[in-house]
């Protein structure tokens, strides 16, 4: 029985100022995988996610989420941007940031109420941040900020999660806490797509991987395609990494 | 107070509120300078609008001028997008050019009308009550009051309707876009409101005060709160306070009203900058001093914990063991005693049970950085507040 395709990318080309950063990407992500997107700096990993989510406009190609365009499937998708992409001095609390995850289901103009607050508190509990709900976000450590972002995605109760470097600048404890939550999501049948930098941990954390460097190099199960050959193609000549089975 | 005086204060207050609302979001979006650009570059829009309508208070003129404001923003973004210059440079390129086009247009064509550059820069709040709105023969008040009042009502309506959207797109544009709240729509909406407010306030208070009223109250409020709603309310209060106190300062000094209001805004910011409870300069200095003392206290407690030998814990030798000045040692000893963390026994210092607990908890926190267990210690000690 073949699995359903959660995300399908066809002939996607994206350019900044007419310089292509992603070239003719074809990609099929099956439902229920925990997938890493790996590639060198400037490979277009974040760009790929942002284009799938309609934040960037591609110059060619199309994206579908469960066979429909993204605009029709927003409710199925949650997004965790890079931690550095927002101003943490913004006057707001941890709880309020998590509540933002509910805005999508509310739509324009409608205000969040008790139901949304309850969902946000549950998500905070899940990531172990409930004691910090009233804390101003600049008063949180880097790891705690990342957990808040994760909680904000959890509160969306989506089917597909996109995360842009969730392990950046967090300590080992937080990294383990986050990966455990991601694995739980996969167990619940969700699809999780993560931009990832640490090649050493790919086989341990993920079951699916996409190699990207402006063009797609390879995509598939980690056990089949995470090898020196693909790493070398992606990162340049003679890239070696030890793979622990 | 004469009715003209009340009207002037009312106009100034409404302008202050109308400016504080978009101003708060401009400050949070790090776009304060855009308001400066808009306030200057709408001049050609005002001049062209004036040629067409022959009326400085016509709604058409306000729309034309607001359009120039939007054009400014678009031009700045376009130049910036080329990647050849940075945003601040792009702003510096665009608005002086548009402003000077307006200046030339006034000089060439409008010598005989009451539209001069001084009035544009500093406004003529004192004259605002003279320009009345007459509806079927009845005087219903100064025109400026009606204009800024209408703009304010629209602004407040938009704020209530789109507060959530403004918040999310200001904090995290990427998430806003992925959830379907187009950050571009919000951005240009905010720019339009800023432009319209600027034009509406322009005639009354001039280009320079408009900028001050947008940025200063918001920046002051930012120092006082970690809550967006409160920041908006504080900014509005500061704006109104400066508007009214500035008016009376001008009255007392017999000086420019807009100049006095701006001065009050500056003084208010200075006061908050110095005395704000958390972010203020004095509070920060006090906190740093306290933290220094607390680190010393911890060092001292740790010394006691680590040394069982009496020689190391004798009051007369503590100074040399820890290598502190007398004053510092006394401060630390007093603090430890006050908190019942140490006890004396024939000049030998030792930790009390509370002192023991505190030391191990504190060390634990410093090593693990897990601050869930020390929440209750935060009230007494700055050290644990991160």
Automatic annotation (TrEMBL), chain A:
Coiled coil: none annotated. Keywords: ATP-binding, Nucleotide-binding, Transport. Transmembrane segments: none annotated. Residues 7-239 form the ABC transporter domain. One of its GO terms (molecular function) is ATP binding. Gene3D superfamilies: P-loop containing nucleotide triphosphate hydrolases (3.40.50.300). The keyword rRNA-binding does not apply. It comes from the Bacteria. InterPro entries: AAA+_ATPase, ABC_transporter-like_ATP-bd, ABC_transporter-like_CS, Metal_Ion_Import_ABC, P-loop_NTPase. The keyword Metal-binding does not apply. Belongs to the ABC transporter superfamily. This is Peptide transporter.
From TrEMBL, chain B:
GO terms for biological process: response to zinc ion; transmembrane transport. Pfam families: ABC-3. The keyword Transmembrane helix applies. It is a multi-pass membrane protein. Gene3D superfamilies: ABC transporter involved in vitamin B12 uptake, BtuC. The chain crosses the membrane at residues 6-28, 37-54, 60-78, 90-107, 145-163, 175-198, 204-224, 231-250, 256-276. Keywords: Cell membrane, Membrane, Transmembrane, Transmembrane helix, Transport. This is Zinc ABC transporter permease. It comes from Algibacter marinivivus.
